[in-house]
Design a protein that fits this description.
The protein has 185 residues and is of the alpha+beta class. The protein has five helices and six strands, in the order H-H-E-E-E-E-H-E-E-H-H. Helices cover 59% and strands 15% of the residues. Strand 1 and strand 2 form a beta hairpin.
Length: 185
């Protein structure tokens, strides 16, 4: 029982770290990355569709994204979606592709983004702790119903804490990496 709970908890924590990584990937760092716009949804024949499913996104230069839709009629919708987003980017549409120049970040904007990164990392760590709490509750319930012994419960709780500490350190590492990207010029 305890091993099952630990395995499920480990899986959930891996997913939480993946989610955190994806959330941080969309924060603009002054460097071009397809992750900046992949999640955006553009209107495509009346259906909100992720840009990554409508076009190829390439990075020919460090500060340039090129979006080439497979259907030229989607150009306007993609352009609109980028303008509506909170990225602050201005698309340049030449009739066949959209170019996005990624401007340098000001120091003030870097500090704002660093705060956003810290908040998202902290939210991720709170999520990890909630997963740990739920797993502990399950283990405690199993112990109360005599499905596991007290010793098994305590060993499981110790292992759970080690796993939680490992993923919290990983969340901090992901955050520090993003912070380093923000401070690069």
């Amino acid at each position: 029982m305890v091993e099952e709970i630990l395995a499920q908890t480990n899986t959930r924590m891996i997913k939480a770290i993946d989610t955190l990584s994806k959330e941080l990937a969309v924060i603009r760092t002054g460097r071009a990355s397809p992750a900046l716009i992949e999640h955006l949804r553009a209107d495509y024949y009346g259906v909100p569709t992720p840009i990554s499913q409508m076009a190829s996104i390439s990075v020919p230069e460090a500060r340039l994204l090129v979006i080439q839709p497979w259907d030229r009629s989607a150009l306007h919708g993609i352009e609109k979606a980028i303008l509506k987003s909170e990225l602050g980017l201005n698309p340049v549409n030449d009739g066949s592709v959209i170019r996005l120049n990624i401007p340098h970040l000001t120091e003030e904007r870097r500090q704002e983004l660093a705060k956003v990164v810290r908040k998202r990392v902290e939210d991720g760590k709170i999520g990890l702790r909630n997963i740990r709490r739920e797993a502990l509750e399950h283990m405690k319930a199993d112990e109360k119903e005599k499905r596991v012994s007290q010793d098994e419960y305590h060993r499981g709780a110790e292992q759970l804490q080690k796993v939680t500490d490992k993923y919290i350190a990983e969340a901090d590492s992901v955050g520090e990496t993003k912070q380093a990207e923000l401070t690069e010029f």
